[in-house]
Amino acid sequence: MSLAEDLADRAHPTPEGAPDDSLLLLREGPVATIVLNRPERRNALNHAAWTRLGETVTALNADPDLRCILVRGAGGEAFAAGADISEFEERRHDAASARAYADNMHAALEGLMHSPHCTLAAIEGACVGGGLELALCCDLRICREGSRFGIPIARLGHVLPWEGMIPLVQISSRAVALELLLEGRIFEAEEAYAKGLVNRVIPPADFEAEVAATAKRLAGAAPLAARLHKLHSARALDPTPLSEAEYARAFSTCDSADYREGVQAFLEKRKPVFRGE
After folding, report:
1. Dist. CA 150–CA 183, nearest whole Å
2. The total number of structural domains that make up the chain
């Protein structure tokens, strides 16, 4: 059974009174797939789903055998249509409750943004509001043609919190962030690519194969080098001069067993086997 068939088989609305399955976790070797599983709500994340997402990401981040976290939505019609606004009157009715809701939500976002593993968002359909915030916290984002993007938070009279604003500006630009937030417009995948919000736009017929291939490439990367590349790419945005320790850190992997394995595998014309050592 393919991953797409597995998701279609396992994704379904949660009957009232049944255990919460708003999020599914699938594991295939070094790749863990988190599936946002509320297709009847276009995978909009409610408070419980944000909580489960944060707990799941925290547990995955502590798994030394994992190499890649893939995040996607169930049903093929939406990655995530943001936070579930139907519960805002109860959970986000004033500044204090909105702060508490955001603290819960940001545990998931921060966990993905600072994960030691490579992270990938596979986007189909709607990726708006909190859904786009979530995707922007992943290292890479690939989307299917026909996907739609935007952060129409101004329609609610609300402001994008810092945990959403910082990656949005860093990944795109201040001008793009203001366009999204002030206009609140929903736009297509090709425009998202032009704005730097996604890395690749994939035809529907090729999407599942490209998701699988990308996750495999990420999982096959040397984990020590991948972690430092993630750390250094963030540090490169800071204009503060590098310390001697930071400068030296770029060469630290040359003392690792993985570096020796990588060089030897190249000379022997074989695929390296990296162990994170």
Report:
1. 9
2. 2
Instruction: Tell whether 12 and 77 lie within a shared domain.
Output: yes
Mean pLDDT by 10 residues, the chain (277 residues): 48 42 94 97 93 96 97 96 82 82 88 96 97 97 98 90 92 96 97 98 98 97 95 93 95 95 95 92
Question: Which position has the token pair 């009957």?
Answer: 15
- 272 belongs to a structural domain: no
Residue 36, C-beta contacts closer than 8 angstroms, at least 6 positions apart = 22, 23, 43, 45, 49, 53, 71, 72, 73, 74, 79, 80
Query: In 3D, which of 145, 205, 146, 124 has the Cα closest to residue 135?
Result: 124
The pairs formed by 57-64 with CB atoms below 8 angstroms and a separation of 24 or more are 57/108, 57/111, 57/112, 57/115, 58/107, 58/111, 60/32, 60/34, 60/115, 60/117, 61/111, 61/115, 61/116, 61/117, 63/32, 64/276
Is 153 found in the same domain as 18? yes
